[in-house]
Design brief:
The structure is a homodimer.
Chain A (H helix, E strand, L loop, with lengths): L1 E6 L4 E8 L7 E9 L6 H19 L3 E5 L7 H20 L4 E4 L1 H9 L6 H11 L9 H29 L4
Parallel strand pairs in A: 1-4, 4-5
Antiparallel strand pairs in A: 1-2, 2-3
Helix pairs in contact in A: 1-2, 3-5, 4-5
Chain lengths: 172, 172
């Protein structure tokens, strides 16, 4: 199962691709950060993001895409940029015919570190360990995108296991 | 000059198409409201919005697109849906190679009614009068989209006039 995770942001958008099966360590395929210039107009920035995401989806042919679900933050301006970038990510995946799953930051933290309150450093450390990397992925946006992808592989695993258990038990 | 205006919303997205030249009354071409089902997942909703907007842009071949610029509101959930729908509208226009201009609600109100504090009823009344319609466009999302399009024709007119004056004066 190959998953492309997106940590949406208008200025920096993290993208992480991992491969794995539920209950086993995932393997790193690639990670990227797509930058857009804050000096550019919004149409130019969204178009740049859309083209780069479309290219990465085509290049890596993931089975599904995981995108961080945006929640209210203190800075409304930041929330808006994140919501706009997230919408582009979701739409790009949907246009490619891929299933899209959204996770809140605390769901991802809980899946990867065991705690929904984990900080950035702890998340990066766990992603580095789980993917058996010699160095932590930088910048943090890339680590967050990889964490999202890992979370989705494992959660997909949970669902697959439940489905398997249901079949085994003779009921669906 | 044909302008397609978009009043972005995830549940109801207003679209208005007008034709006109600066300093003269505009003519109504068409207006629509694109609905998406709140019960559907976000990818389905954004895809539905993208497809409908893409079809309307192809059908009406506007010279440019005007989209309402989203600002902070009290309800963060509403802001997010509006930001997501707005991002889809901006991206759809940019992908079609069209220039996109964004206006704040008060810029549109000031352009159409002369007051940045005009209420919904006043806006609808002015749009009805300016387009010489026998009945007010319903629902209000459609009237707002038409107001955006009228605002853009007139503002484009201002810029065109400035450019013309500059050429006339022998400097650019």
């Amino acid at each position: 199962m190959r998953v492309l995770g997106v940590d949406p942001g208008l200025t920096r958008c993290g993208v992480g691709v991992v491969e794995g099966v539920p209950g086993r360590p995932c393997t790193l395929v690639a990670y990227y950060v797509i930058y857009t210039d804050p000096q550019d107009e919004l149409p130019t920035r969204l178009l740049h993001l859309d083209r780069n995401l479309t290219d990465l989806v085509a290049e890596h042919s993931p089975d599904s895409v995981a995108v961080e679900r945006v929640f209210s933050q203190h800075n409304v301006r930041t929330v808006m940029g994140t919501a706009q970038a997230g919408a582009v990510a979701v739409l790009t995946a949907a246009r490619a015919g891929l299933p899209v799953q959204m996770y809140t930051p605390s769901e991802v933290k809980a899946a990867v570190t065991g705690s929904g309150q984990a900080d950035k450093a702890q998340m990066t450390a766990m992603v580095t360990r789980l993917l058996r990397l010699s160095e932590p992925p930088r910048p943090a946006d890339a680590a967050d995108a990889l964490a999202l992808a890992i979370c989705h592989v494992w959660r997909g695993g949970t669902r697959a296991k439940v489905a398997a258990a249901a079949r085994k038990g003779g009921y669906r």
